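Hello,

Our lab assistant flagged a job as stuck in the queue for most of the afternoon. It eventually completed. Since we weren't sure the result was trustworthy after the delay, we are filing this so someone can double-check. Below is the sequence as submitted and the structure that was eventually returned. Let us know if re-running is recommended.
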Amino acid sequence: MANPNKAKGTAWESAVRDYLNVFFGLVDERGKFIDPMNGANVRRAAQEGAKDVGDIHAAPFVLEAKNTKAPAVPTWIRQAEIEAGHAGFPFGVVVRKVRGFSVAMGRVHVSVRTWTRIRLALGMDTSEFRALYGWSASLRGLDTSRWYLTTTVRDLAHLISDYRRNVPSGVSHAVR
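-- returned structure --
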């Protein structure tokens, strides 16, 4: 790949996808899908230009993967939410690489609105949801559109697993 930054981004996307597929038990010891037609499989999405559908599909989430030095989290969250809409998924989140740490310790950022929608779908109160999935808040000034919540990729994996298990329409077993 000619562009080294593109190569870093692709490697991060693949690492997140692989981590989640192993976590969910969707791949064998060689990393091949146990059931290639399972809608729960986590996949890297093909890029679609102006109607981009995000980097990784982990139904019902679209993950926008970022491997950069300079964070622009509120902008990335808006991008993830738009791309989730394009893909027909209810939730868009950002998954940011943390240098020097494993994939499991990558940072996951969500808007307050998305966080609330996920929490309500799971039927949890604020303190229970925050404690169970390790959420911390970033409140930037008075503009609430710049506020977001953060957890780890490991905690997101637990969240996705719980969502799929407890929300009736969590994941279709047909390929999207």
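-- support follow-up --
The delay was a queue issue, not a problem with the job. The result is valid. The radius of gyration is 16 Å. Confidence is low (pLDDT under 50) at residues 172-176.
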